[in-house]
């Protein structure tokens, strides 16, 4: 008989009990609200080995989503234990103290300037259109676990580098990053197959793809393309890759709209004159604010952007 999956509240309590047993006398297990981008917050589990140094923040919703898809509750307990016990993920100790050590680890993320006013009071950033470009240090990346730290003013002072130095270095690293552009139809088709964990369902989807049934369901999206990085994480920074935008314009033979799907992806649509910027803005707003569409902290913008092939520039058009 198949074991019934726990609901979110049950999962939380079971996780707390399991972690308290594993770290008995060595750490205190807490649930706390952690501020995220767009003035949102997410619930996290944090283990405090002492009152000054917590283990890395682990978000409960992501854990629960994984548990819902795959089961294996103990796997997630072990993952948390590994993160907290492994010195590789002691983020504070891994932050480089010298600028020469930071350079190759410095990344940028594009967020909405107007939706992050409180955050932007605390960190250095560069303005671009109606975005704010903030800077992160990639501290450690191992398998599916990534540890990164938002750059603050104190770190800049320690490194003796200014905002322009951060910007030029992060931009240089961005230009080395691999991105891909593919039709939305192809992207969704691959994602459906990749994220389906049930073998029977995967086989069914494969047959539907081969029979063209999924393509039929996505009819009308053939003009839409999606741009993101290989990890599909904060791929919205591709809007700063002028070379990739220029290349897409050449391939499409003209100007195109850029729709901010989320902080992780951009949608590109060739301007054929069949749709207006105002119509596209309505679609973007529906995606951003419709129920269950985009996670609040992942929203990038309600604006519509336009790449002009002649001027080689991106501008806001709606």
Explain this structure to me?
The protein has 318 residues and is α+β, with helices and mostly antiparallel strands. Helices cover 39% and strands 24% of the residues. The chain is built from 13 helices and 13 strands. The strands form three sheets. It has a six-stranded antiparallel beta sheet, sandwiched between helices. Strands 4, 5, 6 and 7 form a four-stranded antiparallel beta sheet that branches. A three-stranded antiparallel beta sheet has the order 1-2-3. A hairpin with a 6-residue loop joins strand 10 (256-259) and strand 11. Helix 1 crosses helix 3 and helix 9 (184-195) packs antiparallel against helix 10. It is globular and about 65 Å long. The N and C termini lie far apart (55 Å). Residues 195-202 and 213-220 have low confidence and may be disordered.
Give a summary of the structure in a few sentences:
This protein is of the alpha+beta class and 318 residues long.
How would you sum up the major sheet? 6 strands, antiparallel
Estimate the helix proportion, in percent. 25-40%
Overall form = globular
Q: How much β-strand is present in the residues?
A: 15-25%
SSE pattern: HEEEHHHHEHEEEHHEHHHEHEEHEE
The tally of helices reads 13
Structural class: alpha+beta
The Cα radius of gyration reads: 22 Å
Terminal-residue CA separation = 55 Å
| Average residue pLDDT | 81
Q: Which parts are unreliable, with pLDDT below 50 for 5 consecutive residues or more?
A: 195-202, 213-220
Instruction: Say how many strands there are.
Output: 13
What spatial order of strands do you see in the largest sheet?
8-9-11-10-12-13
